[in-house]
Input
Amino acid sequence: ILDSSCEKLGRFRLKKQRFQKQQGFNLVELLIAVTLLGIGLALAVPAFTNLTKKDKIQTMSSEIRTALNYARNEAIRLNDNVVFCHSSNQLVCSTPPNTGWEGWIIRRAGANIGAETGDVLRKGIIDHNVVKVTSNATLSSALHVIRYNSQGLARFFGNNTPLSAQIEVCVASAEVAENLYSVRFNSGGRSEVVRINNSGVCP
Output
């Protein structure tokens, strides 16, 4: 009886050891799992990067359009001339560098560009290493300044000439299908964002 019990116990231990061995991964299975994980990451990382870039131009273009609407509304509310313009120091209007806009401000217009008055009503910073923001030819000729009069109409700074122009928000990436968001406004003060496939090129 003792021999029979020992034999059964030995068989049980052998089956248990075999079962435990079968639960683990062998080297081939581990290599396959690592390879599949690498392929998954190779596909996921570029997709995530492009999604991040698209999110940044969407956010920036929306921010600029909202700022334009705010500047227009403030001009009407204050019954005064209010400007939206490029600003490098977040205090006064200035000409942007070749790399693009560095920031913007909204203030009451002064006697000259760069001599704005009153408090800064709103401001924003632009990281041109992430997105490039530029003025189109018309806005460049207006010295990158949009003046809203007390009626909420967009005008050139030095005269009452109607101003309709564009602010381009772009990311230099061919992987992003619509890499250029054009914030367009007309002299009546209305604005919109138009998405453009510019083949990965920025103005």
